[in-house]
Amino acid sequence: MKSTWLQLDSLLLLLLLLLMELSFVSPQEGNKPNFVLMMVDDLGIGDLGCYGNKTLRTPNIDQLAQEGAKLTHHIAAASLCTPSRAAFLTGRYPIRSGLADHREPGVFIFNAASGGLPSQEVTFAKLAKQQGYETALIGKWHLGLNCKSSDDHCHHPSTHGFKYFFGIPLTNLRDCQPGHGTVFQIQKYFPFGTLGIVLVTAVFLHHGGIITIRRGLILSLLSLLVVVTVLAAGLFLMIPYFNCVLLRDHSIVEQPFTSENLTQRMTHEAVDFIERNSARPFLLFFSFVQVHTAVFASAAFRGTSRHGIYGDAVHEVDWSVGQIMEALERLNLRENTLVYLTSDQGAHLEEISASGEVMRGWNGIYKAGKSTNWEGGIRVPGILRWPGKIPSGRQIDEPTSNMDLFPMVVQLSGASVPEDREIDGHDLMDLLQRKVERSNREFLFHYCNAYLNAVRWHPQNSFPETMG
Ligand SMILES: *[C@@H]1O[C@H](CO)[C@@H](O)[C@H](O)[C@H]1NC(C)=O
Ligand SMILES: *[C@@H]1O[C@H](CO)[C@@H](O)[C@H](O)[C@H]1NC(C)=O
User: Fold this and answer.
1) Where does the UniProt annotation place the signal sequence (predicted)?
2) 355, 382, 406, 446: which could form a disulfide with 71 (CB 3.0–4.6 Å)?
């Protein structure tokens, strides 16, 4: 009797060892998947054909969704670029990394700002790089650049695991394109108009003999107004030079950059990167500068949509996605590449160009947009394609977050999720592969900058009957 038990015991042990062995020889061993992670700046969930848009044409993105899974309850961790991107790269709420501000504007608006994603934060790119991945960021960074001097690049993408960088360290400000106005509202802080009117009225009244003002006072007010106006004008002329810089790794390619053909150039860079690295595992984060204001599109796409330059820009983004998919196909990388497409937050509904053209996107049935915690500010498209691994044509309405990509990418790259810190993302593979029907995420917290605004509850069990 005893010996049979023992035998059974060792048999079980053997089986267990075999299973462990099997799980070690996971598909990524020796044949790690590549990652192409695409984020379109300020794209609204309602701008894509596969999410219900009838007038914009996004055939390439729609095809991605058809060949993969479409998340219909995908939530950005913040409704603004800087914090949302910090969360995406680290799998953590931006409040944990300090990238949630207590005041407006809540994003970096100067390259010269000394803040950035802290070096102690771990991005998926850093971990993938340690696993032998070639890593690149093409496009927008918006997570800081320097600490102490104008070129120490202490927050440069390369310090966070991106071996190659071609793109803009800040964001595509209105100021980056001539004729698109400015985001810096100096008039809010200095009353140019009021001061001008007071001065003119005073001079007028003085001349009419109604009041008497010392000439010196008028002269000093007048010179203050002139000096401040000249300084402000100088600053505005300089802003594109400080802020609109296109870099390749650490060198300046253009300052200020010309945006017209930027999506085309970035697309070529992305395709080149894929071609250069087709023989090894790579991770490409393609972070579109579009469709953020100042909206632009290259000549081939201008006038192609019914929705002005904004729609043209969406068309160009879709073309770009098509080029990248075509490169994967051509290089035989389709099956072994996990592709993701999302937006960093909802569309910016208030955007009107300097000439009065409406440049907002569409968040579908969701209320409000970027920089709010209404659903339209945070519900974003989420498309994942990995042929053979992720069943195609599926729509998943379970709550998911852009932070979920972190644990997923990290584990698929062969690394382990850091245990010395809180990670807020949940691996989505089981959900995507239909191993589970429900996401195990019970809560999602919604911050407006550093302030907790709302909590989304996804009950894990149905209510006990007594709770009625
Ligand atoms: C953009 O590309 C077009 C076509 O190649 C070219 O004619 C145009 O000059 C380019 N624009 C800029 C600003 O480089
Ligand atoms: C498609 O997108 C455009 C541009 O954002 C928007 O104006 C339009 O209402 C959308 N159409 C539908 C049917 O969702």
Assistant:
1) 1-27
2) 382
Ligand 2 lined by 365 (C-beta under 6 Å): no
Q: How much is the average pLDDT of 400-406? A: 98
Q: Which of the ligands is closest to the CA of residue 268?
A: 1
Q: Is 367:194 a contact under the CB 8 Å cutoff?
A: no
Q: Is there a catalytic annotation at residue 81?
A: yes
Name the closest ligand to CA 346.
2
Flag whether pLDDT at 3 surpasses 60: no
Ligand 1 atom showing the smallest separation from residue 261 Cα: 1
Strand pairing category for 443-448 and 337-343: unpaired
Pocket perturbation via mutation, ligand 1, pick of 258, 261, 296, 302 by most ligand atoms within 8 A of CB? 261
Please name the fold of domain 32-171+253-467.
Alkaline Phosphatase, subunit A (3.40.720)
Q: Decide if 206 is catalytic.
A: no
Q: For ligand 2, atom 8, which residue shows the shortest CA distance?
A: 362
Rounded CA gap, 79 and 347, in Å?
Answer: 10
- Does residue 165 contact residue 137 with C-beta atoms inside 8 Å? yes
Q: Domain extents for the chain?
A: 32-171+253-467, 186-234
User: Kind of pairing, strands 451-457 and 443-448?
Assistant: antiparallel
Helices of type H across 118-210:
124-130, 186-189, 192-207
Ligand 1 neighbours, Cβ below 6 Å, are 258, 260-261, 298-299
Ligand 2 binding pocket includes 311 (Cβ within 6 Å): yes
What does the block give as tokens for 106?
């809540």
Indicate which ligand has the atom closest to the C-alpha of 365. Answer: 2
Residue 336 neighbours by CB under 8 Å, 6+ apart: 31, 33, 34
Overall CATH class of domain 186-234 = mainly alpha
Q: How far is the CA of 88 from the centre of ligand 2 (A)?
A: 26
- Residue range 310-368, pLDDT digits in tens: 999 999 999 999 999 999 999 999 999 999 999 999 999 988 888 888 889 999 999 99
Share of the chain above pLDDT 70, in %: 92
User: 67 CA to middle of ligand 1, Å?
Assistant: 34
Q: pLDDT, tens digit, for every residue of 186-239? A: 777 777 788 888 888 988 888 888 888 888 888 888 888 889 888 888 887 888
Q: Across-strand partners of 443?
A: 457
pLDDT of residue 44: 98
Among 73, 142, 292, 446, which one carries the catalytic annotation?
A: 142
